[in-house]
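Deliverable D5.2: sample structural annotation.
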Amino acid sequence: MPRKAGAVATAALLLPLVAAAPSGQQAPQSRLQSAFGAAAAEYQVPQSVLLGVAYLQSRWDGHGGAPSVAGGYGPMHLTDAATALKAEAPHHGHGDEDARGDSSRPARVPEAKLPDASELPDRLKTLTRAAELTGISPEQLRTDPAANLRGGAALLAEAQKKAGKPLSDDPSDWYGAIAAYSGADDKATAASYANEVMAVIRDGAARTTDSGDRVTLAATEAATPDAAQLEGLGLRRAAEGATDCPPTVSCEWIPAPYEEFGEGDYGNHDKANRPVDQSIDYIVVHDTEGRWDTVLKLVQDPTYVSWQYSLRATDGHIAQHLKLKDVGWHAGNWYINSKSIGLEHEGFLTQPDTWYTEAMYRSSARLVKYLAKRYDIPLNRQHILGHDTVPGPTTANIRQMHTDPGPYWDWQHYFTLLGKPFHRSAPPSGGLVTILPEYEEHTPEFTGCTKAGEKCPAHGSSAVRLYTEPRKDAPLIKDIGLRPDGSPSTIGVNDLGSRVSTGQQYAVAERRGDWTAIWYLGQKAWFENPKKQPTAVDAAGTVITPKAGRAEVPVYGRAYPEAAAYEGTGIPPQPVSPLPYKLLAGQEYAVGGKTPGEYYFAPVFDTSGHKVVRGKDEYYEIQFGHRVAFVRAADVEVKSSRG
């Protein structure tokens, strides 16, 4: 049900998203743990508060002094956006992908009209204030974790004093200061952020950071939110309007327009009546390739494109732009658009060191879990899609499709927050594998982040590379959709032709020593999977294979109905157009689900003629390559992967 206006999450509504540390457990005194203690003592901030805030920002990682997607540095995410952020190229405004993806209409490839640079909000320049309070240089605050902790502690202490509160040892007394630390300018977002921190403090946490330091936050069960402390912070009330979000996140209504312009053109979405007329089966994860303020201005432009939600990096705040019954133009595939919800996360695909904040990961996970429950969407990689796993609807569209959120999005952590962590679920005889590299230790080489052919910085990744033979000097797998000339794939950061991603499942074709082969794009594809450092785990499930007597079956990028379904509707039949790949006899592919052939006809502004055409043909969604695909149910046999 829609979120009620003015709702503020309470502790009772917060679902634990952190692996709890036992109450009273003695924390190992690593160098970083000691630095937390020293900074807390220097500024008289409870160590649990400092640890809780830092966990929500960075999970205590220093990221080698690299900034987050919002220009925040170090464990405390001290922001210096003017130094950190590079030129923007919002991803719906570059390349030639038709975000709408409806071949019955002209392509919608908008130009991103970037607003003039404006004064950065205070939430994006907290490092400057930390330098003033501590006397530590901005450079040291950016690169030295211990100094960064001191800067964060100084900011918290200043916020506590401004609120007229004592520098007490009780973390509950610091609720208002924690809310102020978020930098949010509205009460709901500040409260949501503070509630998340209190949940971390209450549940406790422990992990080894990217610097190798073991850090522990002992559980403090008495830590409780105190919403009364928000009064006096000068926070506005966000316009919740038609938002549809869980009560445990902050959500603001910033609507995308539905307007006519030009000669019969309109934008920037389509009106619909989902899920009454069509089920919502997918959630698509994007990154923005631009700053929050820029993205909000673009989505309010009728000549641009649209999606349902945007998520802010600094505090996890959510803006909703479309009612969920309506169809956004975001995925580059009209079939997927008409049956999905799009989430844009503030971030940059080709800047691996500009990390995604924990606050945004957690807020996104809460939203996705809520939406999945409401619309009965399975929490797996064939329904929680990346933009990079949405198929090109036709052969002509394959090379135009976008590749965000890219290889640096941490799918394992994301699904852990969703309550569905990936793990081994069958013995080797199960017949499937779930891709599962250890994110922080798995650092495959990529090129092209800043310049074509130039190596990207080494970074943890969800991506695993595929070869034509079980050896690293073998050619990479070919993708004839991306390269019709048959040339091999590359290690370019945007080249998806020869890689798989965490959580995706594939049928095992062969095993040989430390190598595993899977069926992929109609080929046998090998990846290194050593026992000591596996990149996949065994699984079992349902697969499809061509029916007996069929040498091959076609593969589709959209599940459209047969031509006969359009008879008597006055709607032009849409071509059931196969992709250039071949699914050959003897090959098997993991099944995501069964769906009827559907097409949503909505080519004009006037909604009176909009209609869903539904046929008799049914399709199976399969994990065919890096992207999902569809096969006609009549063409394939469905069976257990166990044989």
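Annotation notes: The longest helix spans residues 145-162. Confidence is low (pLDDT under 50) at residues 1-16.
The annotation will be released with the project's public dataset once the embargo ends.
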